[in-house]
From TrEMBL:
GO cellular component: a single term: cytoplasm
Keywords: Cytoplasm, GTP-binding, Hydrolase, Metal-binding, Nucleotide-binding, Ribosome biogenesis, RNA-binding, rRNA-binding, Zinc
Cofactor note: Binds 1 zinc ion per subunit.
Keyword Hydrolase recorded: yes
UniProt: Zn(2+) binding residues: C263, C268, H270, C276
Protein name (database record): Small ribosomal subunit biogenesis GTPase RsgA
Stated role: One of several proteins that assist in the late maturation steps of the functional core of the 30S ribosomal subunit. Helps release RbfA from mature subunits. May play a role in the assembly of ribosomal proteins into the subunit. Circularly permuted GTPase that catalyzes slow GTP hydrolysis, GTPase activity is stimulated by the 30S ribosomal subunit.
GO biological process terms on file: ribosomal small subunit biogenesis
EC class of the enzyme, as a word: hydrolase
Molecular function per GO: GTP binding; GTPase activity; metal ion binding; rRNA binding
């Protein structure tokens, strides 16, 4: 019996890295099922498992430790089955750009809300700072002030010019980190700046990606300096969808949730109810208008049944 971390899932077998650093190809027994999750794969990268070694040097996964979190993708829109992409994330770095392309605060806030629902801490990485005009830089400072104040660490970088990369590397130490963000914000450029020696590997993955591999169950974590891992899985842009009641949406906006304790009604949705402490905080600039607008935007979409499609 040995313990280890699942670092690669090909769909039919797994690579488990043991505590003494060996990488072992593992299979799971046909009857191995997890309680409570209807998933197409019972084990994902990031899972901590126990393995039983075979004489040939391969192994069977015999047990899986409880997960602190996981992210899923629904097998299809109608299906109740879901695919677990990764487990035990310590951090998600959301790469955004003020411009080229523009990342809206609504997108950022929706992402942050779903990350809160999945209990995954997020850091915001503002990339392409080399391109910004004075106005855009001023706007950037405003955003960084806003999100730092709410409790999300912010980084400003230029992945292309290798600026700010050391701070990112420092943050990755000892963590399992997922990178997300709109297409074109520079995720691959950033990952290559972090892992210059993995350049070939990411290239291999994108080739596989083009062949349609993102529709399979393939996923992999790459080791970074200081006992950390980054997940570079093709086609993963964010978290799965989640179901919640209207009055629960505000739980995932940290600062709105804080003020909501003082609303007159316990089930206040902070739209038009009398005695709403959240609306008062917006009027007094304790809560930013953009965050409140994003909150309302999620509620409106839910009414129109669009929310699921938004991811
Ligand atoms: N000026 C500038 N360009 C950058 C920077 N980072 C990335 N780019 C450019 O932006 C474009 C998109 O970068 P990618 O790294 O491919 O973006 P991505 O987020 O991986 O995009 P997808 O693979 O579509 O998800 C490329 O032309 C990069 O060279 C930066 O810091 N500054
Ligand atoms: Zn309220």
């Amino acid at each position: 019996m040995e313990k280890g971390l699942v670092i690669k899932n090909t769909g039919s077998w797994y690579v488990v890295k043991t505590e003494d650093g060996k990488q072992i190809e593992c299979k799971i027994k046909g009857n191995f099922r997890l309680k409570g999750i209807r998933s197409t794969n019972p084990i994902a990268v990031g899972d901590r498992v126990q393995i039983a070694l075979n004489p040939e040097g391969t192994a069977f996964i015999t047990e899986i430790e409880d997960r602190k979190n996981y992210i899923i993708r629904r097998a299809s829109n109608l299906s109740k089955q879901s695919h677990i992409i990764a487990a035990n994330l310590d951090l998600c770095m959301l790469v955004v750009t003020v411009n080229y392309p523009e990342t809206s605060t609504i997108f950022i806030d929706r992402f942050l809300a779903s990350a809160e629902a999945y209990r995954v801490p997020v850091a915001l990485v503002f990339n392409k700072t080399d391109l910004y005009s004075e106005d855009e830089l001023r706007y950037l400072e405003g955003l960084i002030h806003l999100y730092t104040h709410i409790g999300y660490p912010c980084f400003r970088i230029s992945a292309l010019n290798n600026e700010g990369i050391n701070e990112i590397k420092e943050e990755l130490k000892g963590k399992i980190t997922l990178f997300s963000g709109h297409s074109g914000v520079g995720k691959s450029t950033l990952i290559n700046a972090i892992l210059p020696e993995a350049h070939l590997k990411t290239g291999e993955i994108s080739t596989a990606h083009n062949k349609g591999m993102h529709t399979t169950t393939f996923s992999e974590m790459f080791p970074v300096e200081g006992e950390g891992y980054i997940i570079d899985t093709p086609g993963i842009k964010g978290f799965g969808t989640f179901d919640m009641k209207d009055e629960e949406v505000s739980h995932y906006f940290k600062e709105i949730f804080e003020f909501s304790a003082h609303c007159k009604y316990g089930n206040c949705t902070h739209r038009h109810e009398p005695g709403c402490a959240v609306r008062e905080a917006v009027e007094n600039h304790y809560i930013s208008e953009s965050r409140y607008a994003s909150y309302l935007n999620i509620l409106e979409d839910r009414e129109e049944g669009k929310y699921r499609a938004a991811y």
